[in-house]
Amino acid sequence: KTKNIVESGKYQQYQISLQASQAKVQKFEDVEEKVDKREERRKKAAGGKSGGGTQGRETKTKSTKKQSKLLSRNSEEDTEIVERKASLEIVSADDVKGIIQDSLEEEGLDDLIEPLTQYLLPKLNEQGLEIAANIYATTVADRTANRRQTHNELQNKLNALIGDVRLFEKGIKLLPNDLQTLLVKYLLKTL
User: Fold this and answer.
1) I need a surface site. Which of 28, 46, 99, 113 has the fewest CB within 10 A?
2) What residue stretches are annotated with the E3 UFM1-protein ligase 1-like domain (predicted)?
3) pLDDT per residue as tens digits for the range 171-181
4) Closest CA to 134 of 3, 1, 4
């Protein structure tokens, strides 16, 4: 099942969503740093020699502060949504129940099915993600090895053809001029 998830591309989408969520968390931290700097600047302006007061500068910082609060609320909501979506389910609860149910029903322990499923599901999904990571790494390595091999084969064929063309040119130069043009046309068509 894990191999099918990797081959279908769901694991790659999961990795991309994880990277995107980490980037959003980092942006949120940057916004918080900006807000802290603005607050410090406002406090310094308020506690200066002139006694602060309600001046134009201070009202501007207050309005930008309100905007940053709205931004931070929105970014918190975004990170929560991404964190919910960033989990990949490799083994479903129904699969676990189906496997456990037969053995527990025989022993008369039907009421343990749900707690056992809730206990085992996260651990099984975690192990499944590790297996998926290993499968993904090996398939990527295999693909790059195949690309290298085909690239080397193509390069060898092209080098051989270039060498043949150079040898043919040298051989044609030894022949009479009227034959040279005919042989050049023939070689261009055949190679």
Assistant:
1) 99
2) 151-191
3) 888 888 888 88
4) 3
Task: Phi first, then psi: give them for residue 176, nearest 5 degrees.
Answer: -65, 155
Count CA atoms within 13 Å of residue 5 on its CB side.
Answer: 22
**Length of the chain (residues):** 191
Q: Which residue has the tokens 């308020």?
A: 46
5-54 pLDDT tens trace: 777 777 777 887 877 777 766 666 666 666 667 777 776 666 555 555 55
The alpha carbon dihedral of 60, 66, 67, 69 has a sign of positive
| Number of C-beta neighbours around residue 41 at 10 A | 13
Extents of the domains making up the chain: 1-88, 155-190
CA torsion sign for 80, 86, 92, 96 is negative
CB 90 within 8 A of CB 5: yes
Contacts of residue 184, defined as CB under 8 A and 6 or more positions apart, other chains included, come to: 172
- Among 18, 23, 20, 15, smallest CA distance to 135 is for 15
- Collect all residues with Cβ–Cβ distance below 8 Å to 180 and sequence separation of at least 6: 172, 173
Give how far Cα 22 sits from Cα of 27, 53, 107, 187, Å: 9, 41, 46, 59
